[in-house]
Amino acid sequence: MKAHQITDSVYAIHADIHTDARFEGIWPIPNGVTLNSYVVKGEKTALIDLAKDWAGSIGQFDQQLASAGTSFEEIDYLVLNHLEPDHTAFLIELRRRNPKAQIVSTPKGIALVKNFFKITDNLREVKTGDTLDLGKDTVLEFFETPNIHWPETMMTFDRKNGILFSCDGFGSYGALGERIFDDEFTAEEHAFFEHESLRYYANIVASFSSFVNKALDKLGALPVKVIAPSHGIIWRKNPAEIVSRYAKYAGYNTGTAPCEKEICVVWGSMYGYTRAGLEAVLDGIRAEGVPFTIHQVPDTDASFVLADAYKAAGLVLAMPTYEYKMFPPMAHILDLFERKHFTGKKVLRLGSWGWVGGAKKEYEERIASFKWTSVESVEWQGVPSQADLSLLTERGRELARLIKEN
Ligand SMILES: Cc1cc2nc3c(=O)[nH]c(=O)nc-3n(C[C@H](O)[C@H](O)[C@H](O)COP(=O)(O)O)c2cc1C
Ligand SMILES: [Fe+2]
Ligand SMILES: [Fe+2]
């Protein structure tokens, strides 16, 4: 595979990863993921970010560097926007082959280089506004963007070419294949990647939305022509698209943008009694014409539940009582909602119990700090009665109306 040329002097090194291994060891990537690194050439050559040695990508890396007219041995600067191991796997190898290459990162990034790799020399700390002159009018400028999504993260801007190397920011799941630029994909393909970028955001960035808002403010004044992230599509035709998408995502849990007028239904049931009650709720939602997605737990991996729940203004959470508490897979989902700061939702909770219940109490304690608006929840013993079903339909309608009104 050859490097992709972005301009006369800038290349993307691109690896498609298809693996059963999970992203961050948690999130499934059935559609793969890409790893992008970049070469910027002036008189000196900078390599921006590395890759993870998934799927033997070191071989691809060497080949693509060669096709960009360079090699590990010829790199003058290694810019590390982020020290997560998906962007540093070849660091020791690069140092071994080229001890002269200076490693450039934020002070916190350099501290991690020292701690993770025991590398102590030829390091350069950079802060917001610092620059690195590569010659031939090519200057890299650095912007600290802390907590997107690690504390040491920064973005690098090539002012001459207007390229923002944003590392994990503006990234997405989904392997790209031979095409890597936004103008090379159809509308249908973009719709697919849009969902993968939402899932990526909900899984790994959502906890840090307030920092995304700060970074968007900081970067807003830059004359960006191309957004070049470390995962996913390179935006050269319409970079505003991914920026506005991220602004929307960051707004879903900080209140700077509204959630979508839709409902995400998450349910679990041992013997179908809760499911029977849920059907009546869905009738009510349908009657009000509000769109909904529906996921059964634990069958659907939490990664996908998070994506749909994150963007939805409304949630329906349906689970029975299990050992005096909530059905455990739902407790796991609520735990993730809390960790990822899923605030501001409108929610209906329902479920069946057998002898004394317990799910309701645990649920209410669990969500007390969530800043959610709740429709009165519905519980029943065993199989739902006709009266239960009517009430459930009415509560489903109530939730749907709340979503429509806002
Ligand atoms: C392993 C297990 C634990 C349960 N624990 C409780 C409990 O602590 N309190 C209770 O009221 N019912 C308990 N039940 C009964 C269920 O909550 C009840 O059968 C309910 O109707 C199941 O709904 P479902 O078909 O949607 O799973 C338990 C059932 C099972 C199988
Ligand atoms: Fe990362
Ligand atoms: Fe990453």
Structural account:
With 406 residues, this protein is an alpha/beta fold. The strands form four sheets. Strands 1-2-3-4-5-6-7 form a seven-stranded mixed β-sheet. It has two domains: 4-254, Ribonuclease Z/Hydroxyacylglutathione hydrolase-like (Metallo-beta-lactamase, Chain A); 264-399, Rossmann fold (3-Layer(aba) Sandwich), CATH 3.40.50. The protein has eleven helices and 19 strands. Helix content is 35%, strand content 25%. The protein has helices at 57-67, 91-97, 107-117, 187-205, 209-219, 239-254, 273-288, 302-311, 328-339, 359-367, 386-405; strands spanning 4-7, 10-17, 33-41, 45-48, 77-79, 102-105, 123-125, 131-135, 138-144, 154-158, 163-167, 226-229, 260-267, 292-296, 312-318, 321-322, 325-326, 346-353, 373-381. It is elongated and about 80 Å long. The site of one fe (ii) ion has 4 residues, from loops.
Low-confidence stretches: none
Side by side, the strands of the main sheet go 1-2-3-4-5-6-7
- Tell me about the largest β-sheet: 7 strands, mixed
Supply the CATH class of the largest domain. Alpha Beta
The CATH architecture category of the largest domain equals: 4-Layer Sandwich
Small ligands present: flavin mononucleotide, fe (ii) ion
Q: What is the CA-based Rg, rounded?
A: 24 Å
> What is the 3D form?
elongated
Beta-strand content: 25-35%
Number of strands: 19
Annotated CATH topology of the largest domain: Metallo-beta-lactamase, Chain A
N-C termini distance: 50 Å
Oligomer: single chain
Mean pLDDT: 96
> Roughly how much helix do the residues carry, as a percent range?
25-40%
Number of continuous helical runs: 11
